């Protein structure tokens, strides 16, 4: 009895040591990872400032215009005197867009932003532009159309109707928008020309079509997206258990 009791005590002690080591590893590793993530999260990106002045013909009011940075949540109103300033702009090459909210006017310029510096791009003269708008939807299991919200819509200028997305170089100028809860989107201040309009959403297959944009006119591009196919797999295995220290592993029925 004493020998059996001693064996049981040794087994319990070994098990306690193993559990303690595992807990130290888990909490120690987790804490280290969190500290690394916290440290990485505190990393700040260098930024700069862009300023300029919008000049309109026929002394039109400039307070209908806004200045934005392409693919960034940075914008500022154009003041009545035409001046504007964009702060907190990431360094590197950026595209500044001047967009009319009600007027079909716009301009797009590529600017090099330097850290902790102000880049004055001088006078910007918007030109007559067009507009691309539409609705992005899908068909549900009941055969009814329903809107697709938060889809990303991009319009890229192309040289011919046969040019595809694979033909376009990275970084080419483009306009972008997100669909609202009703699936609607609007791309304003689109310079006249031929555009490849693409739609992307994580839950749907991408779609694209080509449109022609004319100055002072709007064009409609609606999309009906197809849900992505999901693949299911099968995992097989056996559930085993040991009911005492002396017994071997045995399969569990109905587990």
Describe it for me?
- This protein is an alpha+beta fold.
- Among the domains are: 47-128, Immunoglobulin-like (Sandwich), CATH 2.60.40; 130-225, Immunoglobulins (Immunoglobulin-like), CATH 2.60.40.10.
- Helix content is 16%, strand content 43%.
- The chain has one helix spanning 2-41, and strands spanning 47-54, 65-69, 75-77, 83-90, 92-100, 105-113, 118-124, 127-128, 130-139, 145-147, 152-157, 175-178, 184-190, 193-201, 204-213, 218-220, 223-225, 240-241, 250-251.
Give a nutshell description of this structure:
With 255 residues, the protein is of the alpha+beta class. The chain contains one helix and 19 strands. The strands form five sheets. The protein has a five-stranded antiparallel β-sheet, with no helix packed on it. Strands 9, 10, 13, 16 and 17 form a five-stranded mixed β-sheet that branches. Strands 12-11-14-15 form a four-stranded antiparallel β-sheet, with no helix packed on it.
List the helices and strands and how they pair.
Blueprint: H1 2-41, E1 47-54, E2 65-69, E3 75-77, E4 83-90, E5 92-100, E6 105-113, E7 118-124, E8 127-128, E9 130-139, E10 145-147, E11 152-157, E12 175-178, E13 184-190, E14 193-201, E15 204-213, E16 218-220, E17 223-225, E18 240-241, E19 250-251
Parallel strand pairs: 1-7, 9-16, 9-17
Antiparallel strand pairs: 1-4, 2-3, 2-5, 5-6, 6-8, 9-10, 9-13, 11-12, 11-14, 14-15, 18-19
Poorly predicted ranges (pLDDT <50, ≥5 residues)? 1-7, 9-14, 22-40
Strand order of the largest sheet: 3-2-5-6-8
Mean pLDDT: 80
CATH class placement of the domain at 130-225: Mainly Beta
Radius of gyration: 30 Å
Per DSSP, what share of the residues sits in E-state strands of 2 or more residues? 35-45%
Question: In DSSP terms, counting alpha (H) and pi (I) runs of 4 or more, how many helices?
Answer: 1
Question: Whole-Å distance between the termini?
Answer: 36 Å
CATH homologous superfamily descriptor of the domain at 130-225: Immunoglobulins
Order of helices and strands: HEEEEEEEEEEEEEEEEEEE
- Number of DSSP strand runs: 19
Q: Which CATH architecture of the domain at 130-225 is right?
A: Sandwich
Largest sheet: 5 strands, antiparallel
CATH topology of the domain at 130-225: the name is Immunoglobulin-like
Range of helix content? 10-25%
């Amino acid at each position: 009895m004493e020998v059996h009791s001693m064996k049981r005590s040794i087994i319990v002690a070994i098990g306690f040591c193993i559990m303690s080591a595992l807990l130290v590893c888990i909490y120690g590793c987790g804490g280290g990872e969190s500290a690394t993530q916290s440290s990485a999260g505190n990393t700040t990106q260098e930024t700069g400032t862009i300023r300029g002045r919008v000049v309109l013909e026929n002394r039109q009011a400039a307070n209908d215009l806004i200045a934005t940075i392409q693919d960034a949540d940075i914008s500022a109103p154009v003041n009545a005197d035409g001046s504007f300033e964009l702060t907190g702009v990431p360094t590197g090459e950026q595209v500044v867009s001047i967009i009319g909210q009600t007027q079909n006017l716009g301009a797009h310029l590529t600017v090099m932003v330097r850290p902790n510096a102000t880049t004055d791009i001088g006078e910007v003269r918007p030109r007559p532009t067009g507009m691309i708008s539409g609705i992005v939807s899908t068909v549900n299991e009941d055969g009814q159309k329903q809107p697709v919200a938060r889809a990303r819509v991009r319009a890229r200028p192309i040289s011919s109707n046969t040019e595809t997305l694979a033909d376009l170089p990275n970084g080419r100028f483009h306009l972008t928008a997100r669909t609202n809860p009703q699936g609607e989107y609007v791309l304003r201040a689109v310079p006249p020309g031929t555009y490849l309009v693409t739609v992307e959403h994580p839950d749907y297959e991408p779609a694209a079509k080509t449109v022609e944009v004319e100055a002072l006119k709007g064009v409609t591009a609606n999309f009906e997206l197809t849900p992505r196919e999901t693949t299911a797999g099968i995992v097989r295995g056996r559930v085993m258990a040991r009911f005492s220290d002396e017994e071997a592993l045995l399969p569990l029925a109905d587990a």
